[in-house]
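Slack export, channel: ligand-projects

TW: morning all. Re-posting the request from yesterday since it got buried. We need the structure predicted with the small molecule present, not the apo form. The ligand is coenzyme A; the SMILES is in the block with the sequence. No rush, but it would help planning for next week.
GE: picking it up
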Amino acid sequence: MLPTNPRLTPNLELRPFKRRDLDSLLDAVGASLPTLNEWLPWAHMSYGRRDGLIFLRDSVTAWGEGRAYDFTIRSRDDPGPHLGNVSVWYTSRQSSVGEVGYWIRSDESGKGIATEATARTLEVGFDEMELHRIVLRIAVGNDASERVAQKLGFTREGLLRQELKVRGRWLDHTAWGLLEEEYRKKRSQYAEAGWVTSA
Ligand SMILES: CC(C)(COP(=O)(O)OP(=O)(O)OC[C@H]1O[C@@H](n2cnc3c(N)ncnc32)[C@H](O)[C@@H]1OP(=O)(O)O)[C@@H](O)C(=O)NCCC(=O)NCCS
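GE: finished. pasting the full token output, ligand included:
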């Protein structure tokens, strides 16, 4: 299990969830459901307290078991609101492969938050979890998310046909990958872009 200290970026604080994050989580989900519902299987339009509580319970358990690391994204200047989630988890421990996922509340999107939070989460994946490769799956048509992957230097590796069912429809996804050696070369560019602090 990784330590639970906050991971900082120039503008953001990423920290593990606590059960008392329920209200701020629900506020962010509620403000974003029309967009989240378009791409993410869990984000059904009646998402409520029970769903939030189950998520928080599972998140705390997964962290404790060292399976998956979910972070609440907060602004360093105003840490009250939950700005979104970013997560990294093992897909194969044996091969040191992991996956990242993210969402940002709709009224805070377009400000670079996903890119900055994910850049820091890649650091967790490669430096702390000692992953060799991190993947990202993006529904075809989710252009904003593809842009995040591109900015971070992921390579589009292929098409996953009917990978996830969202709102009753099977959605094709593109598969993106970033290798540890690529991340090590990119890291100085992340710092120059202001997404992570200089090493
Ligand atoms: C996708 C998402 C995480 C992006 O978060 P964000 O904080 O707005 O991302 P950033 O600001 O770091 O970067 C977004 C980039 O996409 C671009 N973008 C936004 N909407 C776009 C669109 N419709 N088409 C193409 N590019 C778009 C932005 O201009 C920006 O690129 P730029 O920096 O080159 O200008 C957010 O919109 C979201 O939560 N969507 C719903 C859930 C989701 O799709 N999660 C990802 C699943 S793989």
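GE: first-pass observations. The beta strands are 7-8, 12-16, 68-75, 84-92, 97-104, 133-139, 155-166, 169-179. The chain has one domain: 7-192.
TW: perfect, thank you
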